[in-house]
From TrEMBL:
PANTHER family cross-referenced by the UniProt entry: ANTIPORTER SUBUNIT MNHG2-RELATED
Family according to the record: Belongs to the CPA3 antiporters (TC 2.A.63) subunit G family.
GO molecular function, one term: sodium:proton antiporter activity
Domain of life (superkingdom): Bacteria
Signal peptide: 1-16
Membrane found in the keyword field: yes
Protein name, per record: Na+/H+ antiporter subunit G
Residue ranges of the TM segments: 38-59, 79-108
Keyword Transmembrane: yes
Keyword line: Membrane, Signal, Transmembrane, Transmembrane helix
Any Pfam family hit: PhaG_MnhG_YufB
Length: 155
């Protein structure tokens, strides 16, 4: 860097009286923008990121069971983050009770839906069995078939 370019860089800071006072510090947050808005923004972005991760997992994972895992857990956590952001924005009893109802139904139905879809995929042979670590459902199905055939032979 040459002496001329250094002089150009320092020119606004040097006045006729000497070195100019430091510029007023810029506020960390714009006016009318508080910590609450930052928290809400972070929660909404977290919810969006988790929902996007769920979508990417559904597209990228190899079989139905992995896709169900990706589609349920991050999606529920993303929903929780967005609902908490709504509660921070509008902290009323009506909003709180609505959020509790939404979370309750979501937490009750999402695992059951994933479980039923997983069983249906298993029974229709849409599961990659080489990716299964422990196949407990095969043992249950075999035991059920043995019980059924023994009951048919006995009658």
């Amino acid at each position: 860097m040459s002496a001329a370019s250094v002089a150009l860089l320092l020119a606004p800071a040097v006045s006729a009286q000497g070195i100019a006072p430091a510029a007023e510090a810029m506020p960390l947050l714009p006016e009318g923008f508080g910590v609450r808005e930052v928290v809400i923004g972070v929660l909404v972005l977290l919810g969006a990121f988790l929902s996007m991760a769920a979508g990417v997992g559904i597209v990228r994972f190899p079989d139905v069971l992995s896709r169900l895992h990706a589609g349920t857990k991050p999606q529920v956590l993303g929903l929780v983050a967005v609902l908490v952001a709504i509660l921070v924005e509008v902290p009323t009893w009506g909003v709180l009770t609505t959020i509790v109802l939404i979370l309750t139904f979501q937490l009750l139905t999402q695992p059951m839906t994933a479980h039923m879809l997983g069983r249906a995929a298993y029974r229709t042979d849409h599961v990659r069995r080489d990716l299964l670590i422990d196949d407990e459902l095969a043992e249950d199905i075999a035991r059920r078939e043995r019980e059924r055939t023994s009951a048919d032979d006995g009658s």
